[in-house]
Each structure stands twice: as structure tokens, then as C-alpha cells.
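Justification of resources, computational component.

The compute hours requested in this renewal are based largely on the per-chain cost of generating structure records like the one below. Each record pairs the submitted sequence with a full C-alpha cell output. That output is archived, and it is also reused by downstream analysis tasks.
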Amino acid sequence: MKDRVAFVTGASQGIGRACALELAEAGARVVVGARQQDKLNELVEGIRSQGGRADAVPLDIASAESIQQAFAAAREISGGIHILVNNAGMTRDGLALRMSSENWRRVIETNLTGSFLCIQAVLRTMVRRHWGRIINISSVVGQSGNPGQANYVASKAGLIGLTKALAQELASRSITVNAVAPGFIQTAMTESLDEKVREKILASVPLRRMGEGGDVAHAVRFLASEEAGYITGHVLNVNGGMYM
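The structure output for this chain reads:
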């Protein structure tokens, strides 16, 4: 991927960070975006210390203005994006009966609308080049559902629908659009789970372990590669068999 530029949203930690490291190792120039600039700078320094190419831009996925500014800065730095990994997201869990309209709106606008706006920000360059890879990070719960997460589930299921619609819309321009649906991955978000909840989750995973960020990053690397050029509109499950 030495001639490719990849933009990874939500790259300051967890899955996004793992994806940025994986794509940099594959030879891509990586632009990382998130709100936590200190963690982004640390990531960039780490990639550069290994001989990779990386830059950081501030990005708040919930703000249309921030998205515009971040991708404008990325184009200024790199000349244009070849690979987009839509990873940034948030949760505001609660039972539907008591979920506030604000928590519904924030999760949908961040996870779904924000991802769509990021795609819009890279499309013009991809269409002109007749080449592009768009990879949306969905979730196993976007396929299976999950109580207490109506907003999050709707946003992640929406990403799968968006993936399939855009895959058909952009195929004639040699732009592939795919999704990766992780199961329960060991991240800062899952570290806070109660032990009984963790045991219940593991009991539902045939491989009997939580995944790691690298498991998702390997899938992203493949979908971003030349070898995946005939795959589009696909949802790649990385869930240990939790949902089949």
C-alpha cells in the first residue's frame, strides 16, 4: 500500500488505533483523526519511529464543520485519500422506555450521520481517480440486536445499509464499500464490564474469548488491499462465531 493514503477516524485508541498501525505496517501513509490530540500524536510518533508515514488531524465526528476541516487538512497534507476507515463512534445506553431524545440523536448523528459525512468528504477524489476503499466499522449488535442499545444498534445497522447502498452506487467507479462487524473486542470500553457480564458474553462466543483490536485490523487491511478488489457490499464478521 506504499502509494495509498488511508484516513482512520477514531484512531486514538482501541480498534481505530489498531487499524492505523496495521495500515501503516502495510505501507500506507496514514492520517489519523480523533478528539484526543495527545493520543493521536503519540500514535503518529510510534508509526514514524518504525519508519512509517503518519499525520494527525483533530476530528470531532459529531460536528459537520470539524469533519470538513479535518478532511481539508488531510488533503492538504497528503493530496487525497484512497482508503477511508469509518471507525469513530459512541454509546449512550439505556432502555427505550427511558431513553432521552438527546441520547438517541447524539448516537445516530455521531455513528451514522458522521460516517456518511466522512464518506462524502473523500468521494470526489476517489471518483476522479477511479479507485477507492471505504470500510465502515459496524458491530455484531447491528445484525443481532441488543437490549438497552436501541440507538447504538440502529446506528450500526444503518451503517450496514449505507454500505450496501453505496457499494451499488460506486461500483462503476471501482470504489468498493464494505463493512466489518466486530463482536466483543477487548478495548477500554469493554474493560469496565462487570465480571458476571463478561462471563455471560464469553459463554455466547464459540471461540470462548474476546477479540483483540488486531483481529479487526487484519480484516480492515484485507478489505483495503488490491486482493479485495472484487469484494463490495460485504459485511465481514469478526466475532468469534457469536453471530452466524
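The two ends are 31 Å apart (CA to CA). The chain has a mean pLDDT of 95.
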